[in-house]
Amino acid sequence: MKFRKIFAIALCALTLTACSDDDDKDITFGRTEGEYYGGFTINQGNQGNNIPGSITNIDYEIGEAYQNAFRTANKRVLGDTPQSALIFGDKMYIAVYMSNTIEIVNKTTLKSEKTITLTGTGTQPRYMAGKGNYVYVSMFDGYVSRIDTRTLEIDKTIKVGPNPDEIAIAGDYLYVTNSDGMNYLNGYADGFSVSKINLSTFTEEKKITVGMNPTKAVSNGSDVFVICMGDYSAQNPATLMRINTADDSVESLFGATLMTISGNNLYTVNAPATWGSLELTAPTYSVYSITSKKKTDLKLENIIQPIAIGVEPKSGHIFISSYSVENGWSDPCIVNEYTASGSFLKSYNAGIGASCLVF
């Protein structure tokens, strides 16, 4: 069996969806039975309509998308509200938030190699990053856990801030956004920090003060970029911030709600919504050069309501997952592919709540 190396970048966006049962019988295989190529969307599903989480395989080299890839490989559903995924080494690690599990699968066949069921402290897995022999996982109950990739076991868990979300690695440090997202009625009172964790000792060295409700984080290996979502109002909008890892100083850049990074280019989406009314503002797209500190606008067409962005590392093509109709949380999503300059190439079908892309 010939295996192809699959490169990975992940970005994920939180959506208000979950899942509990599976009524979708449309199971298909990729171009070679038992193997998958290209990229994947992690679909959260929808709890209210009893639709479980799933994985869509997007084989962009032949222009096809295959639904229910995890179920096809394992003859069972993935679980309730998969939040994110990370391809690291020869495996894909999937954080299944509501089922409180971490699925570890072969990155080419998607066959499960282990399911870690979380109990005690360190539960509700959210986002992941990997370095060396470890994969690090933020846990929404206020912890970060470390998976030893040699044993596929969690060997240590440490406490950080409340409701940690996305994480990023720069040098020998892990940066963890502490959203305090469940404390929104009190203005995210403890949601203004990023925990800086020394990877060699796996201990928190300090908390870096940032904006309100930090939830998203990426790094090019030196600088760390964080999106603070604010309180979903015009008074406290979502803002992109840069952490200078040399001295932990923080710089506010511009408005953004989604991002991904490719080399020294940071791709952003700004699609703010007013909490409660869900009044949508027309999204804007840009690429920010980390070296020159210049932002260039992108004109990306055929997007209804973006929920995730990714860049395929080999071609530089931009992928945007979007709801197919406005506020279409119960409808299948689409994923659009664009050239690096923003020209539309193709649209693919995906599952419900396609809030994470990995390549």
Topology (elements, then pairings):
Blueprint: E1 11-12, E2 39-43, E3 54-59, E4 64-66, H1 69-74, E5 82-88, E6 91-96, E7 101-106, E8 112-117, E9 125-131, E10 134-139, E11 143-148, E12 153-159, E13 164-170, E14 173-178, E15 193-198, E16 203-209, E17 214-219, E18 224-228, E19 239-244, E20 249-252, E21 258-262, E22 265-270, E23 273-274, E24 279-280, E25 284-289, E26 294-298, E27 305-311, E28 318-323, E29 332-338, E30 344-352, E31 354-358
Antiparallel strand pairs: 1-31, 2-3, 2-31, 3-4, 5-6, 6-7, 7-8, 9-10, 10-11, 11-12, 13-14, 14-15, 15-16, 17-18, 18-19, 19-20, 21-22, 22-25, 23-24, 25-26, 27-28, 28-29, 29-30
Provide an overview of this structure.
The structure is a single chain. The protein has 359 residues and is mainly β. 2% of the residues lie in helices and 48% in strands. The chain has a five-stranded antiparallel sheet. A four-stranded antiparallel sheet has the order 5-6-7-8, with no helix packed on it. Strands 9-10-11-12 form a four-stranded antiparallel sheet, with no helix packed on it. Strand 19 (239-244) and strand 20 form a beta hairpin. The longest helix has 6 residues, at 69-74.
